[in-house]
Amino acid sequence: MPGKKEKIILTSAFLPILTFLSFCFLSLRTRSKDDGESLAPPATPNVILILMDDMGYGDLECYGGFPYHTPNINKLAASGIRFTNFYAAQATCSASRSAYLTGCYPTRIGIWGAFSPESKIALNPEEETIAKLLKNKGYKTGMMGKWHLGQKAPFLPLNYGFDEFLGLPYSHDYWPVNYDGTPLDTTTQRGKWPTLRLIEGNTPIRTITTLDDAATLTTLYTERATGFIKKNKNQPFFLYLAHAMPHVPLAASAKFKGKSHAGLFGDVMEEIDWSVGEIMKTLEANGLTKNTIVIFTSDNGPWLTYGNHAGNTGGLREGKGSAWDGGLRVPCIMSWPGTLASGGICNNMVASMDLLPTVLSVCKAGMPEKKIDGVNLWPLLSGVSNASPRDEFAYYYDRNSLKGIRKGEWKLVFPCVSQTYKRASAIGNDGWPGKYASDSVHLALYNLRTDPGETLDLQVQYPDIVKQLTNIADKYRKELGDDLTKQTGTEVRPAAKVN
């Protein structure tokens, strides 16, 4: 539960639909429409997407995280909507990021896994990203942070609609450095990885070779992001701030290291909170608060194998690297003061792919020409009675395995092999990982409303629900494919090939 009670605002216009609001309570400035019409959004806003790396559902203070404190993120949540059923597309870096930028399930566009420095695929430049489509509308576009969709030009952000980029091509653990920060033997697999380089535009500008170097990243990205806001305050802009943390190896700058009294993970979380505060202060100082949508979320759940250097799932099952809810359900906050009023909590199902069509609709920009999987959330956000744009979600993992289907409150999981953290040996400590472990998963039906931890199989009691979800799964298998049942999708597009 959140550390502080959230302020709930009800107007008389909401009273007739309290039953609906018990499922999705949105505290909005705009009045709910009973005739099914969505209220038109105001003038074209700026958009800031802050994407964390491996932040779990239970890591923020306003989602139950402790004993560190995140007052700036708490304030952001209090100024907007906090989502409780928000899903990343997959529980791994590259696949997840492709969905945020394209509005597609990763498998539709040929993306899977986390790209290593030797990866032979990249996001296809023919895909229309949110940055490219907003740029076509006249927005200035900037990215700071981790890209992880192609490690070298022409597969870096400038070729996908961004006017500027400062960051890393992939995760900062892809470097020839051991878990304790010492150089690795170059004869080992990890020791053969190339030196990690910070890139500006398409050009490497310096190396990241030590944990002290990694400790500069949060501040560096924050300062560049606030500079981008100031530089573009007189024109619409899209800012994508993709922080390196709290992905391992954890590293906090001197101004935060040891200050949280909650270990290194707490220090990192409080520095992330500082970063959000700097963004919000910059918007306020430049008169941009009411004309800027801020979205704060994560690429996937916590990498639990790192023990006390990992976050937590808030009681959801498993974590990163799995198709259980602990790997895919992540925190998400959306703030737009003056349009979305304060203190909202939305329990409706929402997915990362939905951000692209929602933002493009609000910003009056063109939609992608090719098919996407996201849905426009504006009817839900603007308070249309009984609006529920998304009612199902497909849990894909590994290369292209459909491991589960959710519809409403029900989740059906299919027989497969899954990574698990349910063994003591799978959990490490102080930056060192545990040993990889796997389990056999059997067909099972869970009710996520009453059993969010996915512990009680109800398939015998509800055979009709099993049949309904199986039919939905067959639809995805036909369209997107499924390695578990040896099916090739009819509506998939290839990733780019990297030479």
List the helices and strands and how they pair.
Elements: H1 18-21, E1 46-52, H2 71-78, E2 80-83, E3 86-87, H3 93-102, E4 121-122, H4 130-136, E5 140-146, E6 164-168, E7 196-200, E8 203-208, H5 211-214, H6 217-231, E9 237-242, H7 263-285, E10 292-298, H8 325-328, E11 332-335, E12 344-346, E13 350-351, H9 355-362, H10 378-381, E14 392-397, E15 401-407, E16 410-413, E17 416-419, E18 438-441, E19 444-447, H11 463-480, E20 481-482, E21 487-488, E22 496-497
Parallel strand pairs: 1-9, 1-10, 2-12, 3-13, 5-6, 5-9
Antiparallel strand pairs: 2-11, 4-22, 6-7, 7-8, 10-11, 14-15, 15-16, 16-19, 17-18, 20-21
Helix pairs in contact: 2-7, 6-7
By CATH reckoning, the class of the largest domain would read Alpha Beta
Shape: globular
| CATH third-tier fold name of the largest domain | Alkaline Phosphatase, subunit A
Please list the strands of the largest sheet in the order they lie side by side: 8-7-6-5-9-1-10-11-2-12
Number of helices: 11
Family: Belongs to the sulfatase family.
Pfam families: Sulfatase, Sulfatase_C
Keywords: Hydrolase
GO molecular function, one term: cerebroside-sulfatase activity
Structural features, described:
This protein is an alpha/beta fold and 499 residues long. It folds into two domains: 46-390, Alkaline Phosphatase, subunit A (3-Layer(aba) Sandwich), CATH 3.40.720; 393-497, Arylsulfatase, C-terminal domain (2-Layer Sandwich), CATH 3.30.1120.10. Helix content is 21%, strand content 19%. It is built from eleven helices and 22 strands. It has helices at 18-21, 71-78, 93-102, 130-136, 211-214, 217-231, 263-285, 325-328, 355-362, 378-381, 463-480, and strands at 46-52, 80-83, 86-87, 121-122, 140-146, 164-168, 196-200, 203-208, 237-242, 292-298, 332-335, 344-346, 350-351, 392-397, 401-407, 410-413, 416-419, 438-441, 444-447, 481-482, 487-488, 496-497. It has a ten-stranded mixed sheet with strand order 8-7-6-5-9-1-10-11-2-12, sandwiched between helices. The protein has a four-stranded antiparallel sheet with strand order 14-15-16-19, covered by helices on one side. Strand 20 (481-482) and strand 21 form a beta hairpin. The longest helix is centred in the middle third of the chain and has 23 residues, at 263-285. The radius of gyration is 21 Å and the shape is globular.
